[in-house]
Design brief:
Layout (H helix, E strand, L loop, with lengths): L19 E6 L3 E4 L2 E4 L1 E10 L3 E10 L4 E9 L6 E8 L5 E8 L12 E8 L21 E5 L5 E7 L3 E5 L3 H5 L13 E9 L23 E10 L18 E7 L6 E3 L25 E7 L7 E4 L19 E4 L13 E5 L4 E2 L7
Antiparallel strand pairs: 1-4, 2-3, 4-5, 5-6, 6-14, 7-13, 8-9, 8-10, 10-11, 11-14, 12-13, 15-16, 15-17, 17-19, 18-20
């Protein structure tokens, strides 16, 4: 049985140099009623934990609420348990959906038995009851993470590069301060860790310690990217048109030759004119053989399907999926989208409107 190490503050008195903060607007600016607007704002902070790691965080904040974070690390020693960032999320976002290795905790030297797939759980259930509280709940090879409340309000976090994560109701300091599991008090907020690498567990309880190849590197530059998208509006960042409700609706949507198959059915039109299907996820593989999407409508109607591959919240002609029949489309992942990049959003539009779901035009 594997034993996890107890987290320790190896250097509790680490002195951070005063950070250097820089902010600038995107070159493209908009003007309205004598006020100056910008499409995005970039803020960069540089820090130095002397003798251990220098790191840079660069935030690009877009007008629609999306935030891109690029984190770059320059470690100076391998005496570091984890190389990454942590943050606190507001209480209430208890529902967890993630595409990473799972369903149980796994680490860089304990992950071959944990398969990369789509998993659903809760923050509370990601806690592990050890006799003595310790680091726990890590998931390797994260692609995306969705945190929501019961109504679907929350946050979508997509990754580019090497990222591991954990989501718990406690901090590392909470674990260090106690000796018994029953003494631990859980926080209402969620504590997220996004690590480029976490030191391997090793086998120090009954054998050798962590092998060098599973330790945090002591030199070089390492980085990853995170995209934070608020899940608060019907379009999740896309424009939602208005109009009269149609009697024609999507009765089923299925997929073939995909990693995670979609199987959506409906017997009546949804309540609103346009509705985002938040539980509908299509994960397509990199393959010479295209995936197939089949969408059936309640009546004959012209329809089309787009995928926003470059995540710019618009749908272009080269993102329109080719038809493979009356109700089927072919989905092939472009060469520029590689495993671990920002996950594209499957979207659709009619000839008249742009939107993020399958729709029809009478």
């Amino acid at each position: 049985m594997d034993r996890k190490r107890r987290p320790t503050l190896r250097h509790p008195a680490v002195n951070h140099d005063q950070p250097h903060i820089q902010a600038r607007r995107n070159n493209t600016q908009l003007y309205r009623r004598r006020r100056q607007w910008c499409k995005s704002l970039k803020i960069t902070g540089r820090y130095n934990a002397q003798g251990f790691c220098a790191y840079t965080t660069s935030y690009t904040i877009y007008a629609n609420g999306t935030i891109d974070l690029t984190a770059t690390f320059n470690p100076a020693t391998n005496a570091i348990d984890r190389l990454g960032l942590s943050m606190s999320v507001a209480p209430g976002l208890e529902q967890v959906q993630y595409f990473a290795r799972g369903p149980w905790a796994n680490y860089v030297d304990r992950k071959t038995g944990s398969h990369a797939a789509l998993y659903t759980t809760t923050v509370t259930d990601m806690y592990e009851h050890f006799i003595r509280p310790q680091s726990m709940g890590n998931r390797e090879d994260l692609r995306y993470l969705r945190l929501t409340n019961d109504d679907g309000f929350g946050l979508l976090i997509e990754t580019e590069g090497r990222v591991n994560f954990s989501a718990l109701h406690n901090t590392e300091l909470d674990f260090i301060a106690l000796s018994h599991d029953f003494e631990l008090k859980h926080r209402p907020e969620t504590i997220l860790h996004f690590d480029y690498m976490q030191r391997g567990l090793g086998n120090g309880s009954c054998g050798p310690g962590t092998l060098d190849k599973y330790k945090v590197p002591s030199s070089g530059e390492y980085s990853y990217k995170l995209r934070f998208t608020p899940l608060v509006t019907p379009g999740a960042g896309y424009s939602v048109p208005t109009g009269e409700k149609s009697d024609i609706f999507l009765t089923s949507l299925t997929t073939e030759k995909t990693i995670s198959d979609a199987d959506y059915t409906a017997t009546s039109a949804l309540e609103h004119l346009y509705t985002l299907l938040t539980d509908l996820n299509i994960i397509a593989p990199h393959s010479s053989s295209a995936s197939i999407i089949t969408a059936t409508l309640s009546a004959s109607s012209r329809s089309a399907l787009w995928v926003d591959f470059d995540r710019d919240f618009t749908f272009k002609d080269n993102e329109k999926l080719p038809k493979n029949g009356a109700n089927t489309w072919l989905l092939s992942v472009p060469d520029g989208i590689t495993s671990g990049t920002l996950k594209p959003t499957t979207s659709a539009r009619t000839e008249k409107y742009t939107r993020t779901y399958v729709t029809t035009m009478p």
